[in-house]
Amino acid sequence: MAQREHFSNKLGFMLAAAGSAVGLGAIWKFPYMAGSNGGSAFIILFILCMILISLPVLIAEFMIGRRGQADAITSFKQQAPGTPWYLVGYLGTITSALILSFYSVVGGWILSYLVRALLFQLKSTESTSYDTLFQSIIQNPWEMIIAQGAFFLITIFIVQAGIKSGIEKASKIIMPALFIFFVILAIRSLTLPGAMEGVRFMFVPDFSKITGETVLLALGQAFFTLSVGISIMITYASYLGKNENIAGTGVNVALMNVFISILAGLVIFPAVFALGFKTDEGPGLVFVILPAVFEQIPLGNFFLIIFFILLLFATLTSAMSLLEMVVSVVVKDRPKRRVRVTWLLGLFIFMIGIPSALSEGVLSHIRIGSQSIFGFMEFLTNNIGMPIGALLISLFVGYYYTTNESKTELQTKPFFYTMWIVSIRFLAPIAILIIFIAGIFF
Domains in the chain: how many in total? Predict the structure, then answer.
């Protein structure tokens, strides 16, 4: 059997892991969640929840992956032989495939918007608002399938090249470009007249806005934004050398995620306030409000193109990790199979995602309960698959690992270890159960 491929260095791993986390959760979902839930008060809660809850689970996944040096299923089998813990790996594999099936649909939306912006066709008219434009795009079956397929082709092309030549190489290009584009857009947004109102909205807390629902939403955002619970980080850490400091790497990944989320807010909120739009527009903030915002500023189409390139980059890095999670389970340590397996699995997941792509158009009459096909797939993965996976991973590392084993794997200072073990054994499981119950019943 061939030797397992590894990231060439710590930076490559960190950029790939951060890219997996810095996806639509940070750039699309975080701004509208913050905008709808009090701005700075939500942001403070989000950061606290990430440090206390999400980061310890992320580090736990790193521990399992680096120790196992194999795909998620095999890693659990090696570390807990003769037990059913390996089913956590199967859960992560299935959940990752399902997430990618509808995540690629949003990637298709982004490509459609980007192509229109490049052709100077992304503008409102007297008869067509941006809301109407968005609806016309997502209800066009052929455009949706072609755009989703194009997004999948880019993702497959990168993943089939392997860890060093594919995922790591792409991450080393995409992540710095993402930071540069964000800084450019943030500077432009902050120079608009009246932009400081958006800055105050983000950084001057109004704690009267905090409710039980705000805390729950911040907890959920912190949990989902780091891609924990679906064994992606187990998979990435399995390509990591035994001597890497996973605690420090986990902290860096979390900090990069927070930084990108804050930058996204600095791009969006100053511009929204400066031009008199509302912050609580919800999921339509990126696809409906932002084009209207950019339309009203000099060189707006240029900056809109940059924004959708940036959004595409962030979406791709997450899609790469989702596909790699599934591919690694089949390929294992047989690199000659990678190209064929990646294309076959990619095409299979693409076909699974077609109903989600059509769920706002020709298949809009199909409802599962009160939800569209797209909505149901999101509910199934975000509200059931990910919390259950994260809970089981927390319990596995917190209680199945002995204290000596976890200390040896973590290799950190006693104070940090104590904080981590308290969280992974008590705080994280309780928080995840709250997320799970709230996601199912409320």
Answer: 1
